[in-house]
Amino acid sequence: MKVLHVTGEVAPYSKTGGLGDVLGELPPAQRALGIEARVVTPLYGFIDRGRLRRGRTLAEVHLGGRALGGRLWHDDDRHITFVDLPGLLDRPHNYGGPGGEYADNPLRFGAFCKVAAGMADEADVFHLHDWQAGLVAMYLGGRRPVVLTVHNLAYQGLCGFEWADRLGVPRALRTYEGVEYYGRVSLLKAGLVLADRLTTVSPTYAAEIQKEPGGMGLAGLFRHRRRGLDGIINGIDTDDWNPAGDPALPAAFTADDLGGRAACAAALRAELKLDAGPIFGVISRAAGQKGLDLLVSAAPRAIAAGARFAVLASGEPSIMQGLSEVAAQHPGAFTVVDRFDLDLARRIYGGADFITVPSRYEPCGLTQLIGMRYGSIPVVRRTGGLADTVVDGETGLCFDEASAEALNGAIDRALSLDDDARAAMQARCMAQDWSWAGPAAAYRDIYRRFGGLEAKP
Ligand code: ADP
């Protein structure tokens, strides 16, 4: 069975969030099951092509009245094909810089999708991810079965209706039953209405998107398609995310021998200049979804109760501003690092006592899974994948209401755990299996429902 994943980001090349992690980790887990899983993704300007193999020149892509030329590049070890469309995809950011999204993203990703759809001969099944890949379903025109996974419904690839012509959207699809979304064009919706099966990244999120406000205006569509809609929780690469051999950590540790963890905590405390007290780690994009405003409001009371915060976040300036103000008022208790830093993230996972995820909504969430693997206990809002992966009082502490009071309540409960209770909870967290084996098999079962696509023995 040959599966071609189409994505706007893939770790370690172009990750901006959990989507990139998933595309870096799911395909190798599928290959371990005998599936020929490959990834096709844009060659952005910041990707070093020196390490890639130069592939074939592309046939001209006709789109938006332009004839676009390009070529393919390959990472053969990772089974990744990069689409190089000079002038379009080779920008310094995936989707846009601090000034906002690139205005020609519909053309950029439309052209990318057209190239990907042109690879139909190399795939039995297309597996599309989020809005960046939605148009593949349209350009394929039914030539291959399509699975579309929604990783985050907040990002729909919306653009003005003038794009319908430029992207070659057939008349019949220019309605609310097609790509139209409240007078605009939704690239995601092209995939949602044309894919054979839909999945999302947790069962609770699959239920939440069938109602408003979780459905973000598309709840009716998801209700209509609920029989072909599965929720599959993401895994993590447990070889990569492994405190027993993580080169970013100052000391190694395992569930059986936690000795090195104290050294990780001490180093993190020194690095981030935090006073004594339990450390609550936060590793997050700074976006409204993530509930960091709740953290800002809850922090003074939590700090007075003894909590210390190690916050690694980057994104929207207004959110970062709020976090910086708390940090300025509470030196030694609340440290904010404003950047995307994969190694510091690892040091926080390995050195914090708790990992705090106060999301307003969370399709799956990876930080709580990685946190558990590294022995930092999740403190999470009970929504989406957080509700499916953290058991209150067993493997973490949950709160329901999206309010600072509710977050403070969960932090207070975390602070009140005695050493034995905390150690027992940490041990249960570290004993969880969040590897990709389960989810990879679940996706295989979905592909198999297309029939005639058995994995070769
Ligand atoms: P989302 O995809 O919505 O950003 P997830 O929890 O699914 O959220 O995935 C977040 C991933 O990105 C995790 O691997 C997390 O460690 C990482 N991450 C988020 N923010 C940062 C940051 N500022 N620096 C380093 N890694 C980050």
Whole-number mean pLDDT: 96
Bound molecules: adenosine-5'-diphosphate
SS-based class? alpha/beta
Q: Give me the side-by-side strand order of the main sheet.
A: 3-6-7-2-1-10-11-15-16
Question: What's the alpha carbon Rg, rounded to whole Å?
Answer: 22 Å
Short description:
This protein is an alpha/beta fold.
Task: Describe this protein with a few key phrases.
alpha/beta, Rossmann fold, 2 domains, 22 strands, 35% helix
Describe the protein.
This protein is an alpha/beta fold. The strands form 5 sheets. Strands 3-6-7-2-1-10-11-15-16 form a 9-stranded mixed sheet, sandwiched between helices. Strands 19-18-17-20-21-22 form a 6-stranded parallel sheet, with helices on both faces. Strands 12-14-13 form a 3-stranded antiparallel sheet. The model has no long low-confidence stretch (mean pLDDT 96). Bound molecules: adenosine-5'-diphosphate. Adenosine-5'-diphosphate binds next to helix 1, strand 17, strand 18, helix 11 and helix 12.
